[in-house]
Each structure stands twice: as C-alpha cells, then as structure tokens.
Amino acid sequence: MNYELLRQGLEAPICLTWEITYGCNLHCTHCLSSSGKRADNELSLEESKHLLDEFAEMQVFYINIGGGEPFIRPDFFNIAEYSVQKGIGFHVSTNGTLLSEKSVRRIAALPGLRVQVSLDGVDEATNDAIRGRGSYRKAMQALALLQRHSIDLSINCVLTRFSFLQLDALYELARTYGARLRLSRLRPSGRGKERWDLLHPTREQNVHLYYWLREHPEVVTGDSFFFLSALGPQLDGLGMCGAGRVTCCITPTGDVYACPFLLSPQFWAGNVREQPFSVIWRDSPVFQQLRQYEVEACQSCLLFHSCHGGCIAASFYVTGALGNPDPECVAITSLNERTA
Amino acid sequence: MQAAWQAGVIVQLDHRYRLSPKVKLRRERFGALLYEWERGHLYFLSPPLVAALSELIQGKTPGEVLETSSGESALNGSSKVVKALEKLERIGVIDEL
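^ Those are the sequences you sent over. The predicted structure of the assembly is below.
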C-alpha cells in the first residue's frame, strides 16, 4: 500500500540531498558529483537561507548535506545553524579531514545535527585506494574527535567488492566509535561511472549482503539495497526508488535533480534561482513523469512487489536508457532457486 | 471508558496528550506522514486518525475526541481510533502531559 501512496509523490520530500559545494580537498575515485573545485556561482548564504525557509515551509523532515566537502564552505555553520533554528534535521556527510576541536565544539552545540564520516574500507590500503593517500588516518582522527564530543555519529561506507570483505570489521569499527554503520550502494554516477566495472560488488556478494543486513538491522542503508529484497522478506526501508517522489537533489548552483545519482540533463527539474523549490517539486515535468514511471521490463516479474524495478540511476547509467531492470537485479536467479 | 476497555488499551481517556518533540507531522493527500527523527521511522496516518490526532494535539482528551464520533458505526470507529492512539503512544509519537 505504501508503494502506491509514495509512487505518486508527496506534498514535499521526506528528505533531500543538498550538495552545498563542489569544493573538495579529496578526489575520490567514485565521487557521484565529480567534485573538486568550488564553482563560481554556488548558492550564497542568503540564497541558502531562503531555500531553508522554503524547506521549513514545506515541512521537509530533514536534509542530507553533501558536496564536495561541506566543511570547505566558510559559511557552513551559518547554514547549519539556520537549518537547526528552522527545525529541519541537518545530516552532514564529511570526509572528516577538515574537522578541528573548535569546529566539533560548534557541531556539539547544534541539536539535530548529525555527522556522517565517509570511510571506504576498514584499513588504510582499502580506503586510501579510493579516497586518496592519508584520508584514512585523518578520518580516524575525526571519528575520535567526534566521539569525544558525543556527536550523533555514523560511518558511511560505499560498498565495493573490496570493502565487502570487511563488512564485519566495519561493523566492529563503528561500534568502537559509538557510531552507526551506514552502508551505501555504489552507483555508476559521476566518477563512479568509470570505476563501476572494477568496483561494484559481485552477485554472490550482493546475495551475502542481503542476509548480512537481515542479521544486522541496526545497520542503516538509506534504502540503498532495496533491490536485494527480491531474495526474501523486505529489508528495512521504503522498498522503492524515491527519485522525484519522496526525495530529490539540489546541486551547489541550485539545480534540482531527481536524485543525487541522476545528475544528467534528462533528470533536471529546474533551478531554485528561477523558480521556488516548492513549484519545482510539485510541477516539474521530470518529476511528474517519474511519479507515473514504472519499469516496464519488470512488470511481469513475480517479484516486482519486492523491488519495483530497483534503482533508476544504476539502470540508466549501465544500460543507457530508462525502462530496464536494475543491472544488479537478483530476482531471476532467486525465482529459479525458489521454484527449484 | 467502554471503548478503551474493549480495545484493551493503555491510553487514558481522560488524560491529555501532546505530540512528542521527537516527531514531525505533515499532511498528505492520503492523510499524513509522521516522521520520528530519533530512529528515522516513518508512519502513514489515515484521515480519521489524523483528525483524531489533531484534536488531541489541540488539547482534547481521547475521551472528548471519541465523543465527537456518532451514528451507527461510532463504536467500531471509536475502537479503531483508540487502538490507533494507543499504538501512537506505544511507539512514542504522543506523550502524556
């Protein structure tokens, strides 16, 4: 029932991703937004506050702040403080390298602010191969600092076929820092397109992951792995692609896309400098289409109710078109196994 | 009290409740969405429950909310509402004042 309610879109996003800068001091090989240098025309603080006013008016429940590296913006705390003041949950994703005693004290003073530190492996070799030399050591320092100040903390790992081997160790590492473990799915977006073939988990790993997630319900996924629910009972989450329906993405320059993994012209819904965000959310043709969209090729699948066709971004970037099943679909073999 | 007893609930019909500060409520076409931000849980509310919850938030007791029900289906409807309110209290969406 929830699928039908959500598929047609909500009055406002449940949450949205707002990439507040393209600036980043790292150069991760799988970066979904291909970040590096700040853009000249990134939204100003005033524009950012105006946007937060709109989110508050629309009752967006929380925003995921990403980039780029959010802490690279000199006015980061102005934005964060205004969001908290407006009652909007503020979840910031950081590589941790720019955090200091002083900045973490400021974070601690902001109720409703959650911090997620990216770590793409449990050891230096695995992590730094993706995130760059020295990034592991700095991320660990940040985790220790954040823990010391009792910050609401999670560690996010974009799961690859290499970090997959470290699932249990990642889980333990997060516990050590009093953090939640969050696992995200690798998408072939941004620089991730070039690394997809090399990094995406194997089918066997994905199958194993499904059962591992069932055994570890406290691990959060941001609904990344709902496509695996074809293997059995549904994993925690909405169980569907929320692009343009329950979520969307705003880039540093105010462009609105259906999802942070769908940053292509086909999925551009508007720009907040030209139209109010609420109007874009309600009326943009792209979002209207997505609210009618169903993966045609999956309609006859007996397990359609489990994943509703999977991730649109993964399908679009791997197959080059809409309407195709998720490239990591596990349903066909699963069906064979069930009927054997 | 009868409706509450029949539903086997904890909710106190003569007490007052408030929406938990951990929760945000947003109207939607199908009723409302409730978001509990501590655990990140989402709940879907039907229109009758939204109406009951709104009255509760405005200061009515569950008993007073139920008194507004009338007609042939009142008992069944009331029972459902009480059960739903009891669930909302159990999951921490409403707090007793």
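Helices of chain B lie at 2-7, 47-57, 62-67, 74-90. Chain B touches chain A through twelve residues (CB under 8 Å).

Shout if you want it in another format.
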